[in-house]
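Practice problem: predict the structure.
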Amino acid sequence: MDRETRVFAESYFRGLRGRPAGGVGASPGRVDFIERPDSFSYADFFKGYLLPNVPCVFSSAFTEGWGSRRHWVTAAGKPDFEHLLRKYGEVVVPVANCGVREYNSNPKEQMLLRDYIGYWKDYIQGGCSSPRGCLYLKDWHLCRDSLAEDVFTLPMYFSSDWLNEYWDTLDVDDYRFIYMGPAGTWSPFHADIFRSFSWSVNICGRKKWFFFPPGQEEALRDCHGGLPYDVTSPALLDSQLYPMREHCSPPLEVTQEAGEMVFVPSGWHHQVHNLDDTISINHNWVNGCNLANMWHFLQQELLAVQQEVSEWRDTMPDWHQHCQVIMRSCSGINFEEFYHFLKIIAERRLLLLAKGMGHGEVEDSQDTWLGRQQAAFDVSRIAEVLASVVAHPDFQRLDTSMFSLQPEELLQQLEEVMVTTASL
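Answer:
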């Protein structure tokens, strides 16, 4: 990040006055297609798409050097099953059944990749049909495996990725995934975890995307308040079942070709269908641009839990703590872990600034494209959100006595550094 971009971004967030970025708004009407890597900078992406929180598609030129595009695909542009079997055949992978609805998702099972590819071959030979149903390999954490070398190169546009930086520090999880499946596999209507951004690259095959900007999903709720499972279902035409449907704008539709990369903004609900035999690489990520969105989402999640168990509030000892436990079970994170997430990222940025790292240098062995301007911007965003966290009544109910650094102390450190970096 250069200084001009940082000044632009900080002015943008001051104008929001603490509101989540990219909130309720009209559809942009179209999705931009970015053709050439040599004429599209990090600042172009940051100002044009990340801050305004709108989708875009990058051409296949941005991924042409990836190992997966060379090795995982046949000359005919199909999945290279034989290579995948040799390289990963004995790896256990998660597989969802697209033909079965379990709440608003699909049930999953674990199987060896060689067994899934065997199923996939049979599915193709059976005319895109199988007595086992329509199975979709989803959320395979290949990137945590040493076998993942030379699969892809992280695009610089997505390199400020706090979510995976945090989990890599803990060395227990990540939000980097491989998806693969035959034509007809799909992902139901949803918004990404924690209201994260995501990016998705088709290694081969094509996908059809349906995008709805934040707020539009409210008009898609049924008469019971539930969101649809499938936005292409004829049931949505039933005005008694979906009384607000007429107030929803048509979705933005994108057909993603092989090699192309889709940027999914924070809080945009979407649904995705594989039009061909398809393999894709997908990351979820959070940074200073959507951190407030994540915090807003977590507050909503806690409120939903509290409302669900409100009848036990007066009789259950430690009711507030139980709500945090339930929230973590349902959402994958609670207020305490969110603070530790902020703390780890903050400490790494403070260390980077203390070292005086120059623009464009890479921090230790991470794929984190961070200079001092980016680090200073990150500190300002963490400070704003942390101030809101510290002031939240439910956070104040947590026992923070065993925290290695008290939240108020961390906030003070961040605010002091913001003063010293103001003229950076």
